Protein backbone atom coordinates (compact mmCIF):
# COMPACT_ATOMS: atom_id res chain seq x y z
CA UNK A 1 0.00 0.00 0.00
CA UNK A 2 1.44 3.33 -1.01
CA UNK A 3 1.63 6.16 1.52
CA UNK A 4 2.45 9.81 1.16
CA UNK A 5 4.23 11.31 4.17
CA UNK A 6 5.34 14.86 4.82
CA UNK A 7 8.44 15.35 6.99
CA UNK A 8 10.23 18.48 8.10
CA UNK A 9 13.99 18.14 8.66
CA UNK A 10 16.64 20.60 9.72
CA UNK A 11 20.19 19.75 8.61
CA UNK A 12 23.49 21.48 8.07
CA UNK A 13 25.80 20.90 5.12
CA UNK A 14 29.26 22.25 4.44
CA UNK A 15 29.68 24.37 1.35
CA UNK A 16 32.48 23.57 -1.11
CA UNK A 17 34.40 26.61 0.17
CA UNK A 18 34.26 25.37 3.76
CA UNK A 19 35.39 21.89 2.76
CA UNK A 20 38.29 23.39 0.82
CA UNK A 21 39.25 25.56 3.81
CA UNK A 22 39.20 22.58 6.19
CA UNK A 23 41.44 20.54 3.91
CA UNK A 24 43.91 23.40 3.53
CA UNK A 25 43.95 24.09 7.26
CA UNK A 26 45.12 20.64 8.27
CA UNK A 27 48.07 20.35 5.87
CA UNK A 28 51.51 21.64 6.98
CA UNK A 29 53.63 24.18 5.12
CA UNK A 30 55.76 21.47 3.52
CA UNK A 31 52.69 20.06 1.72
CA UNK A 32 51.08 23.41 0.92
CA UNK A 33 53.38 24.03 -2.04
CA UNK A 34 52.32 20.73 -3.65
CA UNK A 35 48.65 21.50 -3.03
CA UNK A 36 48.96 24.93 -4.65
CA UNK A 37 50.74 23.47 -7.68
CA UNK A 38 48.00 20.88 -8.09
CA UNK A 39 45.34 23.60 -8.02
CA UNK A 40 47.24 25.70 -10.55
CA UNK A 41 47.49 22.70 -12.89
CA UNK A 42 43.75 22.03 -12.91
CA UNK A 43 42.69 25.69 -12.88
CA UNK A 44 44.29 27.87 -15.59
CA UNK A 45 42.65 30.97 -14.10
CA UNK A 46 44.94 30.71 -11.06
CA UNK A 47 48.52 31.82 -11.45
CA UNK A 48 51.48 32.93 -9.37
CA UNK A 49 51.77 36.68 -8.96
CA UNK A 50 55.20 37.84 -10.15
CA UNK A 51 55.65 41.63 -9.89
CA UNK A 52 57.20 43.32 -12.92
CA UNK A 53 60.55 45.03 -12.73
CA UNK A 54 58.95 48.35 -13.67
CA UNK A 55 56.60 48.11 -10.71
CA UNK A 56 59.50 47.43 -8.36
CA UNK A 57 61.39 50.46 -9.73
CA UNK A 58 58.33 52.66 -9.24
CA UNK A 59 57.99 51.35 -5.71
CA UNK A 60 61.64 52.20 -5.02
CA UNK A 61 61.12 55.72 -6.38
CA UNK A 62 58.09 56.18 -4.15
CA UNK A 63 60.08 55.04 -1.13
CA UNK A 64 62.85 57.53 -1.91
CA UNK A 65 60.30 60.34 -2.26
CA UNK A 66 58.66 59.44 1.02
CA UNK A 67 61.99 59.56 2.81
CA UNK A 68 62.17 63.31 2.11
CA UNK A 69 58.65 63.93 3.37
CA UNK A 70 58.50 64.60 7.15
CA UNK A 71 54.94 63.21 7.25
CA UNK A 72 55.83 60.04 5.39
CA UNK A 73 55.84 58.00 8.60
CA UNK A 74 52.10 58.52 8.87
CA UNK A 75 51.46 56.87 5.49
CA UNK A 76 54.18 54.28 5.28
CA UNK A 77 53.68 50.75 4.03
CA UNK A 78 53.59 49.25 7.50
CA UNK A 79 50.71 51.39 8.75
CA UNK A 80 48.79 50.91 5.52
CA UNK A 81 49.37 47.18 5.75
CA UNK A 82 48.06 47.13 9.30
CA UNK A 83 44.84 48.84 8.19
CA UNK A 84 44.44 46.42 5.30
CA UNK A 85 45.07 43.47 7.57
CA UNK A 86 42.46 44.67 10.07
CA UNK A 87 39.89 45.06 7.33
CA UNK A 88 40.70 41.66 5.89
CA UNK A 89 40.66 39.88 9.22
CA UNK A 90 37.22 41.25 9.97
CA UNK A 91 35.79 40.13 6.67
CA UNK A 92 37.51 36.76 6.92
CA UNK A 93 36.13 36.07 10.39
CA UNK A 94 32.64 36.79 9.13
CA UNK A 95 33.26 34.54 6.15
CA UNK A 96 34.48 31.74 8.42
CA UNK A 97 31.25 31.90 10.42
CA UNK A 98 28.88 32.02 7.48
CA UNK A 99 30.23 31.31 4.02
CA UNK A 100 27.84 31.82 1.07
CA UNK A 101 26.68 28.89 -0.95
CA UNK A 102 28.24 28.76 -4.42
CA UNK A 103 26.13 29.48 -7.44
CA UNK A 104 28.19 27.16 -9.64
CA UNK A 105 30.19 24.19 -8.46
CA UNK A 106 33.91 24.85 -9.09
CA UNK A 107 34.72 21.21 -9.75
CA UNK A 108 32.03 20.78 -12.40
CA UNK A 109 34.00 20.99 -15.63
CA UNK A 110 31.58 19.15 -17.87
CA UNK A 111 30.16 20.59 -21.07
CA UNK A 112 27.66 23.37 -20.65
CA UNK A 113 24.18 22.71 -21.91
CA UNK A 114 23.37 25.03 -24.84
CA UNK A 115 19.80 25.44 -23.65
CA UNK A 116 20.98 26.56 -20.24
CA UNK A 117 23.35 29.01 -21.86
CA UNK A 118 20.59 30.32 -24.04
CA UNK A 119 18.37 30.92 -21.03
CA UNK A 120 21.05 33.03 -19.34
CA UNK A 121 20.96 35.74 -21.97
CA UNK A 122 22.62 38.29 -19.72
CA UNK A 123 25.67 37.28 -17.65
CA UNK A 124 26.53 39.61 -14.77
CA UNK A 125 30.22 40.32 -15.33
CA UNK A 126 30.61 43.32 -13.02
CA UNK A 127 32.15 41.19 -10.27
CA UNK A 128 34.82 39.91 -12.65
CA UNK A 129 35.80 43.21 -14.25
CA UNK A 130 36.98 44.79 -10.98
CA UNK A 131 40.69 44.19 -10.43
CA UNK A 132 40.39 44.87 -6.70
CA UNK A 133 38.29 41.75 -6.25
CA UNK A 134 41.02 39.40 -7.49
CA UNK A 135 44.02 40.57 -5.50
CA UNK A 136 46.54 38.11 -4.15
CA UNK A 137 46.50 36.76 -0.62
CA UNK A 138 49.85 38.02 0.73
CA UNK A 139 49.18 38.96 4.35
CA UNK A 140 50.88 40.75 7.19
CA UNK A 141 51.68 37.46 8.92
CA UNK A 142 53.92 36.29 6.09
CA UNK A 143 57.55 36.28 7.12
CA UNK A 144 60.41 37.66 5.02
CA UNK A 145 61.52 35.26 2.33
CA UNK A 146 65.28 35.82 2.71
CA UNK A 147 65.31 34.99 6.42
CA UNK A 148 63.16 31.92 5.88
CA UNK A 149 65.50 30.62 3.21
CA UNK A 150 68.44 31.13 5.50
CA UNK A 151 66.86 29.62 8.61
CA UNK A 152 64.91 26.76 7.05
CA UNK A 153 67.10 23.70 6.30
CA UNK A 154 67.08 22.40 2.76
CA UNK A 155 66.61 18.79 1.72
CA UNK A 156 69.70 16.71 1.14
CA UNK A 157 70.22 16.08 -2.57
CA UNK A 158 72.99 13.50 -2.22
CA UNK A 159 72.53 9.94 -3.43
CA UNK A 160 70.81 7.27 -1.37
CA UNK A 161 72.36 4.24 0.29
CA UNK A 162 70.74 2.03 -2.33
CA UNK A 163 72.69 3.83 -5.07
CA UNK A 164 75.89 3.53 -3.05
CA UNK A 165 75.44 -0.23 -2.65
CA UNK A 166 74.73 -0.70 -6.35
CA UNK A 167 77.89 1.23 -7.20
CA UNK A 168 79.92 -1.02 -4.91
CA UNK A 169 78.30 -4.05 -6.52
CA UNK A 170 79.41 -2.92 -10.00
CA UNK A 171 83.01 -2.69 -8.78
CA UNK A 172 82.91 -6.18 -7.24
CA UNK A 173 84.47 -9.04 -9.25
CA UNK A 174 81.20 -10.81 -10.14
CA UNK A 175 79.87 -12.37 -13.30
CA UNK A 176 76.53 -11.42 -14.85
CA UNK A 177 74.63 -14.13 -12.97
CA UNK A 178 76.09 -13.17 -9.60
CA UNK A 179 75.49 -9.47 -10.25
CA UNK A 180 71.80 -10.16 -10.90
CA UNK A 181 71.64 -11.99 -7.55
CA UNK A 182 73.42 -9.09 -5.86
CA UNK A 183 70.94 -6.57 -7.26
CA UNK A 184 68.05 -8.66 -5.96
CA UNK A 185 69.68 -8.88 -2.51
CA UNK A 186 70.30 -5.14 -2.36
CA UNK A 187 66.72 -4.50 -3.41
CA UNK A 188 65.55 -6.69 -0.52
CA UNK A 189 67.34 -4.57 2.12
CA UNK A 190 64.85 -2.74 4.36
CA UNK A 191 65.11 0.70 5.91
CA UNK A 192 67.25 -0.52 8.84
CA UNK A 193 69.76 -2.20 6.54
CA UNK A 194 68.61 -5.80 7.11
CA UNK A 195 67.54 -8.58 4.74
CA UNK A 196 64.64 -10.11 6.61
CA UNK A 197 63.30 -12.25 3.76
CA UNK A 198 64.23 -15.91 3.50
CA UNK A 199 66.86 -16.66 0.89
CA UNK A 200 64.54 -19.25 -0.62
CA UNK A 201 61.93 -16.52 -1.18
CA UNK A 202 64.58 -14.39 -2.90
CA UNK A 203 65.42 -17.35 -5.13
CA UNK A 204 61.74 -17.58 -6.10
CA UNK A 205 61.71 -13.87 -6.90
CA UNK A 206 64.66 -14.33 -9.25
CA UNK A 207 62.93 -17.24 -10.96
CA UNK A 208 59.66 -15.39 -11.51
CA UNK A 209 60.93 -11.88 -12.27
CA UNK A 210 64.15 -12.61 -14.18
CA UNK A 211 63.70 -16.27 -15.19
CA UNK A 212 66.92 -17.06 -13.33
CA UNK A 213 67.16 -20.41 -11.54
CA UNK A 214 69.57 -20.14 -8.58
CA UNK A 215 70.22 -22.11 -5.43
CA UNK A 216 70.30 -20.88 -1.87
CA UNK A 217 74.04 -21.66 -1.75
CA UNK A 218 74.65 -19.30 -4.68
CA UNK A 219 72.67 -16.56 -2.95
CA UNK A 220 74.64 -17.05 0.28
CA UNK A 221 77.90 -16.72 -1.65
CA UNK A 222 76.85 -13.37 -3.13
CA UNK A 223 75.43 -12.28 0.23
CA UNK A 224 78.88 -12.69 1.78
CA UNK A 225 80.16 -10.26 -0.86
CA UNK A 226 77.41 -7.77 0.04
CA UNK A 227 78.38 -8.09 3.71
CA UNK A 228 81.74 -6.61 2.77
CA UNK A 229 80.17 -3.40 1.47
CA UNK A 230 79.95 -0.14 3.38
CA UNK A 231 78.46 0.69 5.80
CA UNK A 232 79.59 -2.25 7.98
CA UNK A 233 76.80 -4.63 8.94
CA UNK A 234 74.68 -3.96 5.86
CA UNK A 235 72.63 -6.91 4.57
CA UNK A 236 72.58 -8.79 7.88
CA UNK A 237 69.66 -11.09 8.57
CA UNK A 238 69.37 -10.37 12.31
CA UNK A 239 70.92 -8.18 15.00
CA UNK A 240 73.66 -10.61 16.19
CA UNK A 241 74.88 -11.09 12.62
CA UNK A 242 74.84 -7.31 12.06
CA UNK A 243 77.00 -6.69 15.14
CA UNK A 244 79.35 -9.58 14.35
CA UNK A 245 79.91 -8.27 10.82
CA UNK A 246 81.00 -4.95 12.30
CA UNK A 247 83.30 -6.66 14.81
CA UNK A 248 85.03 -8.53 11.99
CA UNK A 249 86.33 -5.20 10.66
CA UNK A 250 87.80 -4.14 14.01
CA UNK A 251 91.31 -5.01 15.18
CA UNK A 252 91.12 -8.52 16.60
CA UNK A 253 92.32 -7.72 20.11
CA UNK A 254 91.18 -9.33 23.35
CA UNK A 255 88.18 -7.01 23.81
CA UNK A 256 86.91 -7.69 20.28
CA UNK A 257 87.27 -11.45 20.74
CA UNK A 258 85.37 -11.33 24.04
CA UNK A 259 82.65 -9.22 22.38
CA UNK A 260 82.28 -11.82 19.62
CA UNK A 261 81.99 -14.57 22.24
CA UNK A 262 79.25 -12.64 24.07
CA UNK A 263 77.22 -12.16 20.88
CA UNK A 264 77.71 -15.72 19.71
CA UNK A 265 77.25 -17.70 22.95
CA UNK A 266 75.29 -15.44 25.33
CA UNK A 267 73.29 -13.02 23.20
CA UNK A 268 70.02 -13.71 25.08
CA UNK A 269 71.67 -13.00 28.43
CA UNK A 270 73.27 -9.88 26.97
CA UNK A 271 69.93 -8.54 25.69
CA UNK A 272 68.44 -8.96 29.19
CA UNK A 273 71.59 -7.57 30.89
CA UNK A 274 72.18 -10.67 32.97
CA UNK A 275 75.86 -9.87 33.38
CA UNK A 276 76.48 -12.33 36.20
CA UNK A 277 75.38 -15.22 34.00
CA UNK A 278 77.65 -14.02 31.18
CA UNK A 279 80.65 -13.86 33.53
CA UNK A 280 79.95 -17.35 34.83
CA UNK A 281 79.33 -18.89 31.40
CA UNK A 282 82.31 -17.30 29.60
CA UNK A 283 84.63 -17.21 32.64
CA UNK A 284 85.37 -13.48 32.30
CA UNK A 285 86.58 -11.02 34.85
CA UNK A 286 84.40 -7.98 35.56
CA UNK A 287 86.85 -5.61 33.85
CA UNK A 288 87.05 -7.85 30.77
CA UNK A 289 83.27 -8.03 30.58
CA UNK A 290 82.96 -4.28 30.94
CA UNK A 291 85.47 -3.57 28.15
CA UNK A 292 83.81 -6.07 25.82
CA UNK A 293 80.36 -4.59 26.41
CA UNK A 294 81.69 -1.07 25.75
CA UNK A 295 82.91 -2.33 22.37
CA UNK A 296 79.46 -3.73 21.55
CA UNK A 297 77.66 -0.55 22.63
CA UNK A 298 79.68 1.47 20.11
CA UNK A 299 78.40 -0.61 17.18
CA UNK A 300 75.54 0.50 14.94
CA UNK A 301 72.41 -1.69 15.25
CA UNK A 302 70.78 0.00 12.23
CA UNK A 303 73.37 0.39 9.45
CA UNK A 304 70.67 1.35 6.96
CA UNK A 305 70.54 4.83 8.42
CA UNK A 306 74.29 5.53 8.21
CA UNK A 307 74.66 5.95 4.44
CA UNK A 308 74.80 9.25 2.56
CA UNK A 309 71.07 9.67 3.03
CA UNK A 310 69.88 6.29 4.21
CA UNK A 311 67.80 4.13 1.89
CA UNK A 312 65.63 7.16 1.14
CA UNK A 313 66.02 10.89 1.00
CA UNK A 314 66.71 12.89 4.13
CA UNK A 315 63.66 14.88 5.18
CA UNK A 316 63.96 17.98 7.31
CA UNK A 317 61.27 19.43 9.52
CA UNK A 318 59.98 22.66 8.02
CA UNK A 319 58.42 24.96 10.64
CA UNK A 320 55.04 26.52 9.94
CA UNK A 321 55.65 29.44 12.34
CA UNK A 322 58.71 31.49 13.22
CA UNK A 323 58.80 33.14 16.66
CA UNK A 324 61.45 35.70 17.59
CA UNK A 325 61.94 37.45 20.90
CA UNK A 326 62.91 41.13 20.65
CA UNK A 327 63.66 42.20 24.24
CA UNK A 328 60.55 40.54 25.62
CA UNK A 329 58.35 41.44 22.65
CA UNK A 330 57.38 38.39 20.58
CA UNK A 331 57.15 38.60 16.81
CA UNK A 332 55.19 35.72 15.27
CA UNK A 333 55.27 35.19 11.50
CA UNK A 334 54.09 32.50 9.15
CA UNK A 335 56.61 30.56 7.13
CA UNK A 336 55.34 31.52 3.67
CA UNK A 337 58.31 30.17 1.74
CA UNK A 338 56.28 27.45 0.09
CA UNK A 339 53.14 29.58 -0.39
CA UNK A 340 53.64 31.81 -3.44
CA UNK A 341 51.46 34.87 -3.85
CA UNK A 342 48.53 33.94 -6.06
CA UNK A 343 46.19 35.94 -8.24
CA UNK A 344 43.53 35.41 -10.87
CA UNK A 345 44.95 35.57 -14.37
CA UNK A 346 44.34 39.02 -15.96
CA UNK A 347 43.83 37.28 -19.30
CA UNK A 348 40.51 35.93 -18.09
CA UNK A 349 39.36 39.37 -16.97
CA UNK A 350 40.24 40.66 -20.43
CA UNK A 351 38.14 37.86 -21.91
CA UNK A 352 35.14 39.10 -19.93
CA UNK A 353 35.73 42.66 -21.14
CA UNK A 354 35.79 41.42 -24.74
CA UNK A 355 32.54 39.54 -24.22
CA UNK A 356 30.93 42.54 -22.52
CA UNK A 357 31.82 44.83 -25.43
CA UNK A 358 30.88 42.35 -28.14
CA UNK A 359 27.91 43.41 -30.23
CA UNK A 360 26.89 39.87 -31.09
CA UNK A 361 26.86 37.28 -28.34
CA UNK A 362 26.30 33.83 -29.78
CA UNK A 363 25.76 30.58 -27.87
CA UNK A 364 29.33 29.31 -28.19
CA UNK A 365 30.75 32.48 -26.73
CA UNK A 366 28.32 32.26 -23.81
CA UNK A 367 29.37 28.66 -23.16
CA UNK A 368 33.04 29.68 -23.13
CA UNK A 369 32.36 32.59 -20.78
CA UNK A 370 30.32 30.39 -18.44
CA UNK A 371 33.16 27.87 -18.30
CA UNK A 372 35.65 30.65 -17.56
CA UNK A 373 33.32 31.99 -14.86
CA UNK A 374 33.42 28.60 -13.14
CA UNK A 375 37.22 28.58 -13.18
CA UNK A 376 37.32 32.16 -11.96
CA UNK A 377 35.01 31.38 -9.05
CA UNK A 378 37.14 28.38 -8.15
CA UNK A 379 40.33 30.49 -8.22
CA UNK A 380 38.82 33.22 -6.02
CA UNK A 381 37.51 30.65 -3.54
CA UNK A 382 40.94 29.02 -3.35
CA UNK A 383 42.63 32.37 -2.66
CA UNK A 384 40.03 33.15 0.03
CA UNK A 385 40.66 29.74 1.61
CA UNK A 386 44.39 30.48 1.74
CA UNK A 387 43.65 33.82 3.42
CA UNK A 388 41.43 32.20 6.02
CA UNK A 389 44.03 29.50 6.63
CA UNK A 390 46.71 32.06 7.41
CA UNK A 391 44.37 34.07 9.61
CA UNK A 392 43.31 30.99 11.59
CA UNK A 393 46.89 29.77 11.99
CA UNK A 394 48.01 33.14 13.37
CA UNK A 395 45.08 33.46 15.76
CA UNK A 396 45.64 29.97 17.14
CA UNK A 397 49.41 30.33 17.51
CA UNK A 398 49.12 33.76 19.14
CA UNK A 399 46.82 32.22 21.76
CA UNK A 400 49.32 29.42 22.43
CA UNK A 401 52.17 31.93 22.80
CA UNK A 402 50.07 33.98 25.22
CA UNK A 403 49.29 30.99 27.45
CA UNK A 404 52.83 29.54 27.35
CA UNK A 405 54.68 32.86 27.48
CA UNK A 406 57.03 31.80 30.29
CA UNK A 407 58.25 28.85 28.26
CA UNK A 408 58.92 30.94 25.14
CA UNK A 409 60.90 33.43 27.24
CA UNK A 410 63.19 30.93 28.99
CA UNK A 411 62.81 27.69 27.04
CA UNK A 412 62.49 25.77 30.32
CA UNK A 413 60.22 22.74 29.97
CA UNK A 414 59.17 23.06 33.60
CA UNK A 415 57.56 26.42 32.77
CA UNK A 416 54.93 24.79 30.56
CA UNK A 417 51.39 25.16 31.89
CA UNK A 418 48.63 22.58 31.57
CA UNK A 419 46.77 23.35 28.35
CA UNK A 420 44.18 21.47 26.32
CA UNK A 421 42.52 22.15 22.98
CA UNK A 422 39.43 23.52 24.69
CA UNK A 423 41.43 26.34 26.33
CA UNK A 424 42.65 27.65 22.97
CA UNK A 425 39.24 27.18 21.34
CA UNK A 426 37.61 29.37 23.99
CA UNK A 427 40.25 32.08 23.63
CA UNK A 428 39.85 32.44 19.86
CA UNK A 429 36.10 31.60 19.78
CA UNK A 430 36.51 28.66 17.44
CA UNK A 431 35.56 25.02 17.54
CA UNK A 432 37.87 22.45 19.15
CA UNK A 433 38.10 20.56 15.86
CA UNK A 434 39.54 23.67 14.18
CA UNK A 435 42.24 23.99 16.84
CA UNK A 436 42.98 20.28 16.50
CA UNK A 437 43.52 20.66 12.75
CA UNK A 438 45.91 23.55 13.36
CA UNK A 439 47.88 21.69 16.03
CA UNK A 440 48.13 18.52 14.00
CA UNK A 441 51.38 18.17 11.99
CA UNK A 442 52.34 21.83 12.54
CA UNK A 443 55.54 23.08 14.19
CA UNK A 444 57.09 26.36 15.34
CA UNK A 445 60.68 27.55 15.20
CA UNK A 446 61.83 29.31 18.37
CA UNK A 447 65.16 30.45 19.77
CA UNK A 448 65.36 27.14 21.63
CA UNK A 449 64.62 24.84 18.68
CA UNK A 450 61.73 23.58 16.58
CA UNK A 451 58.74 22.19 18.49
CA UNK A 452 55.55 20.51 17.22
CA UNK A 453 52.44 22.34 18.36
CA UNK A 454 51.25 19.20 20.12
CA UNK A 455 54.23 19.63 22.43
CA UNK A 456 52.53 22.56 24.18
CA UNK A 457 49.33 20.65 24.96
CA UNK A 458 49.45 18.56 28.11
CA UNK A 459 47.22 17.38 30.90
CA UNK A 460 47.40 18.64 34.47
CA UNK A 461 48.78 16.85 37.53
CA UNK A 462 47.49 17.83 40.97
CA UNK A 463 50.06 19.17 43.45
CA UNK A 464 50.08 19.72 47.19
CA UNK A 465 49.85 23.49 46.65
CA UNK A 466 46.47 23.07 44.97
CA UNK A 467 47.67 24.16 41.53
CA UNK A 468 47.89 21.86 38.53
CA UNK A 469 51.29 21.14 37.02
CA UNK A 470 51.83 20.23 33.41
CA UNK A 471 52.59 16.61 32.61
CA UNK A 472 55.54 17.95 30.59
CA UNK A 473 56.97 19.35 33.80
CA UNK A 474 56.56 16.01 35.56
CA UNK A 475 58.18 14.18 32.63
CA UNK A 476 61.11 16.60 32.73
CA UNK A 477 61.66 15.95 36.44
CA UNK A 478 61.27 12.20 35.90
CA UNK A 479 63.89 12.30 33.15
CA UNK A 480 66.30 14.21 35.42
CA UNK A 481 65.82 11.72 38.26
CA UNK A 482 66.57 8.76 36.01
CA UNK A 483 69.53 10.59 34.47
CA UNK A 484 71.11 11.13 37.91
CA UNK A 485 70.42 7.63 39.26
CA UNK A 486 73.13 5.09 40.01
CA UNK A 487 73.51 2.87 36.96
CA UNK A 488 74.52 -0.03 39.19
CA UNK A 489 71.23 0.23 41.13
CA UNK A 490 68.64 1.99 38.94
CA UNK A 491 65.49 3.44 40.48
CA UNK A 492 62.33 1.37 40.21
CA UNK A 493 58.95 2.87 39.39
CA UNK A 494 57.93 2.59 43.06
CA UNK A 495 60.95 4.62 44.17
CA UNK A 496 60.36 7.18 41.45
CA UNK A 497 56.75 7.51 42.60
CA UNK A 498 57.82 8.21 46.18
CA UNK A 499 60.42 10.77 45.05
CA UNK A 500 57.83 12.64 42.97
CA UNK A 501 55.31 12.54 45.82
CA UNK A 502 57.98 14.01 48.09
CA UNK A 503 58.29 16.94 45.67
CA UNK A 504 54.57 17.63 45.92
CA UNK A 505 53.26 15.85 42.82
CA UNK A 506 50.29 13.59 43.51
CA UNK A 507 51.07 10.84 41.02
CA UNK A 508 50.50 7.08 41.01
CA UNK A 509 53.01 4.38 40.10
CA UNK A 510 51.14 3.39 36.93
CA UNK A 511 51.30 7.03 35.80
CA UNK A 512 55.05 7.02 36.41
CA UNK A 513 55.35 3.88 34.28
CA UNK A 514 53.24 5.49 31.52
CA UNK A 515 55.37 8.64 31.45
CA UNK A 516 58.57 6.57 31.49
CA UNK A 517 57.39 4.58 28.47
CA UNK A 518 56.43 7.80 26.66
CA UNK A 519 59.99 9.01 27.23
CA UNK A 520 61.30 5.73 25.71
CA UNK A 521 63.10 4.87 28.95
CA UNK A 522 63.32 1.12 29.71
CA UNK A 523 62.56 -0.49 33.05
CA UNK A 524 65.12 -0.39 35.87
CA UNK A 525 66.50 -3.86 35.07
CA UNK A 526 67.38 -2.85 31.51
CA UNK A 527 68.99 0.42 32.66
CA UNK A 528 71.53 -1.41 34.78
CA UNK A 529 75.18 -1.00 33.84
CA UNK A 530 78.44 -2.45 35.13
From TrEMBL:
Q: Keywords in UniProt for this one? A: DNA-binding, DNA-directed RNA polymerase, Nucleotidyltransferase, Sigma factor, Transcription, Transcription regulation, Transferase
Tell me which residues make up the RNA polymerase sigma factor 54 core-binding domain.
155-348
- InterPro entries cross-referenced by the UniProt entry: RNA_pol_sigma_54, RNA_pol_sigma_54_core-bd, RNA_pol_sigma_54_DNA-bd, RpoN_core-bd_sf
The superkingdom listed in its UniProt entry is Bacteria
The name this protein goes by in its record: RNA polymerase sigma-54 factor
Please state which protein family the record places this protein in: Belongs to the sigma-54 factor family.
Ranges of residues in domain RNA polymerase sigma factor 54 DNA-binding: 370-528
Q: Where is this region: Disordered?
A: 36-159
Cite the record's Acidic residues compositional bias ranges: 46-86, 121-134
Q: Is DNA-binding included in the keywords of this UniProt record?
A: yes
